[in-house]
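To assess whether the prediction recovers the assembly geometry, we first specified each molecular entity separately, as shown.
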Amino acid sequence: MASTPSDHDDLVRVDFRFRRELAEKVEGNLASFCYQCGACVGDCPAATYSEAFNPREIMLKVLYGLGEEILTDDSILWECTNCYNCHERCPQEVKPVEVIISLKNMLADAGIYPSPVRKVIETFERTGRTVPHNPAIDKQRAKFGLPPLPPVPVDEIRKLIELSPEEENGEDET
Amino acid sequence: MKRFAFFPGCLIPARHPAMEFAIRHTLPKLGIEAVDLEGASCCPDPIYFKSEDKVAWLTVAARNLTLAEDLDLDIFTNCSGCTATLSETYHLLEDEALRTKVNRRLRHIGREYKGTSKVRHIVTLLRDEVGFEKIRESVVRPLEDVTMAIHYGCHLLKPSKIMKVDDPNDPSVMEHLVEALGAKPVRHRNWYLCCGKACQKADVPANMMHDLLGTVNEEHADILCMICPTCFGQFDHGQMKISKQFGEDFHTPPVYYFQLLAFAQGVPYDKLGFERQRFKPEVLKRFETPDPVAASS
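The predicted structure of the complete assembly is given in tokenized form:
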């Protein structure tokens, strides 16, 4: 008997388009090796102290390609403490924290950040530092016999950050 | 003198110049010359900018490493976050495809990453280049009977294959460094917990810090010693906030290791910027020598 998709509405379908997009990010492909053992959960401080955060579940959603459940305005990803315990524990070298950061890169592509995060990023992109220079800092430094903060060549940093993929790949560029 | 390129990062030079002073004061006494890097930027930070774009993050980090390569020196950091970024960059750029991608970008500013400068956290310089015994010999006023709870922090130790500092399940480097000062290290029950700074949901780090500070408090340690400026902020300003929020009386003064080392080497208490801390390590004052000349050797 021929079957149509509507006969199997309970079928789980994997969204490979999302997974391929994630795999483009540095180490974004690593969730593929996850066998859902949960070693990352037991040692995760965010999972211990949060009702909702669970790195194993995030990896599972990645495996199923459930991007729209993860990449939301109030994404659960920002509960990660970046402690690297999961990276240390994972027997499959999935590096869940790195997959989570790759997912955050996808959020950034969509222009979604918590505002404190956006603020730090903007400060860095504007000044080349996460704590921008100001005269009060140099005054404090002078008290300890330290010279003023040395200048950062911000134009160089911006150039590196803002290169488009075409420019990046331009072999003839000098 | 052993020479290393010094990568001070953002937080210590701008927010905690006393820490930078202590590093620059103590290292030469231990035979280490810190060579300044011209044109360094933020590492960039492994939490925020890395979340924006990993490739751009790697490229800017690789640029910083090329500054040390120009000097033919290995590079050391005084911040666990900077070490995380630079060590991970060194590790990831062993991959040829990724290195090529990053170098295509670097070419636009006339630079090339080669991978010739190794990344060192400042505690590994103390342990592996100086040695605990030589640190002990540099101490002119041993901090006898001072108990120090130790907070290793996350990025100093993990991921261990990349950071290559110590065993994250049973680290010892900070205990040895504290003992070299003549003080007594204390391993509190929650020693392995994260400071929570990176987490963006307020109640998670608050509850975590409450538990962590609770166990530190139970030990009645005189000082909470750490080696990361981000953790320091969490334990100084953060400790006050947590105490208020939970109605607790947590008050263990946090101190960055190098300020303790500088003090033990004879730098007067009031030259180390402790007055700017919310919780001051006044226990150290009992070691102050009446004659400041004796302290300056």
